[in-house]
Amino acid sequence: MKFICKTNFLSKAVQTAKKAISSNPTTPIFSGIHLIAANNQVEIQGMDLNMAIGCQIEANVEESGNIVVPAKYFSDLLSSLQTEEVVISKNANDSTVSIEAGKANFQIVLMDENDYPAFPAITGEEKLIISDEILKNLIKKTIYARSTDETRPLFTGILFEKKGSTITFVGTNTHRLAIKSADVQNNEDKDYSMIMPGRLLNEVVNNLNSDLPQDVIISLLNRQVIIKIGSTTIVSSLVEGEFPDYKRVIPAKFAIKTKVNVKELEGAVKRVSLFSGEGDYSIVKINVKSSEIVINSSSNDVGKGRESVSSVTEGESLNVAFNARYILEVLKNIDDEEVTIEMNNSLSPACIRPVSEENYLYIVTPVRVVF
What we know:
The chain is of the alpha+beta class. It is built from six helices and 25 strands. A hairpin with a 2-residue loop joins strand 8 (96-101) and strand 9 (104-109). 35% of the residues are buried.
């Protein structure tokens, strides 16, 4: 095997495929990157038991073939090269690969390519075509609400739900819930749902970086999802289990409704939460009044913080407390200038939604505190 290609193209593709490799591979072969050269194209593959990523780049292939090279050494070397082009060739006399870059030549010991599993099939049963901007928005506005507790794998994923031309993403850790929907035309009528791993969606976002608009193809095959973004294909196992009925936790109506500026509320919560002590579980108390929202917090170790922001409220005044991080993370993902917060009492779920952005809402459970 021998090919010549742009160094930065190969390095970028290797870095992308490497994301599929686990930090603790189940077998040594999964610590390698698989290179397949043929027809003036090189396929770069990385995988573990749950995910596989393949990238294609153009190359001058002088001799077809394939190799498996240790991912860490190969990617570290490529990222440090200064030459525009690199020559990759498998040495015939031993099990090494030669990397030539200008006046430099490096030899890396190869792994057995016969041990490397075949890349998963990339044609699925159900097929959905969605624009990169819509997909990125769906992920961005829900993934932060998922759980990171691996002992509850069901909630570490994001529910993907297709009904007609509407796609809905749902993320929850059981204390909060983010729901974002979008209309996607010109797709199959069949309805279906799946739970996509958070790790997969993070990698999808990392690859949605084209300067030009592009379509993303999502398809299903058995219990796997295949996502094709340009010359990159990501294949992942789905999260097993049945996602809870998220609509049941959304109150049918609200007695209190207040409208407030997003940036003003975000800044006030961020500053006041500094006085609630260290740790992720930072509590802020909120007093909703007719024309203002008062946020306060205190701790014996730090002191006290209090700040008010203007608001317009319909309904009675209310004292309620929230995990500050749960409020800040949704506000960071709202593009509108104003947000509406709807509540019933100090213990029932509250609903936060942008004033003008349709099909996006956030449910958060208050914290029980003494006022």
